[in-house]
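Lab notebook page, bench 4
Experiment: in silico fold of construct C2
Operator: M.H.
Input chain length: 264 residues
Purpose: comparison with the prior construct
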Amino acid sequence: MNPNDRPSLDLDGSFDPLGVAPGTNAAGSSGGGIPAAGGSDTPAASGENAVEYSTGTTTVGLVAHDGVVLATDRRASLGGRFVSNKNVVKVEQVHPTAAVTIAGSVGAAQAYLKQLRAEADLYENRRGRRMSMEALSTVGSAILRGLPVSPLLGGVDPARDAEADAEPRLYQLDGAGGRIEESAFAATGSGMTVATGALEREYDPEGDVESAVPTAVDAVLAASERDTASGNGVVVARVTADGVETELRDATGALMNGAAGGVR
């Protein structure tokens, strides 16, 4: 970029600090380029109607016998080249016993979370009961269609009677409206390949929520070691029939894996 040139604006009006021409990404290919929760989304044509985008972050979800553990890193970056924020919370509660991880465009993710919360609240107000995880994931996948966001939805259905146990559920959702229920674990974002390897090695299908937390943290830390768009600590959410508890760990607390972080 010539120092005398004026900074360029992207197609959505956002500032491009690298001076990339509007409508192109850093490699020169066509793309919209909206800063993402952990990196940037660069849509590119793939076929006549399909849209592909990259997500710069690491999010993981694990199913335990008494709940679900969701974990993400805390870094926001511009295309993985510049760290724009080191304290991002990428896990948000959307239901009394459910939460969603964020990977993708910040604006689209925030709008998606607001709409999903509204749908869950409206259902409960109209019907006098909470939305089940099956219903919540169905609605969540439907309203996600066309958005550059790749979330994980983790939640717990309460026990149906005194003799039954609560049912933890984990879903992987995509921008094409897809919905896949995972019986063990899942990962999304640019660090998902490294995180998945760690989960494959450490996941205990018989474990409880507390024993699953170190595994989730290890997976995010492993990805943060190799993925430039991930890092700066870990956010961990414990989702049980009692609700959602989110813990923030900085890089030091995360590396210690077990050190107490801030709970909100």
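Observations: The first strand starts at residue 8 and ends at 9. The radius of gyration is 19 Å.
Next step: discuss at group meeting.
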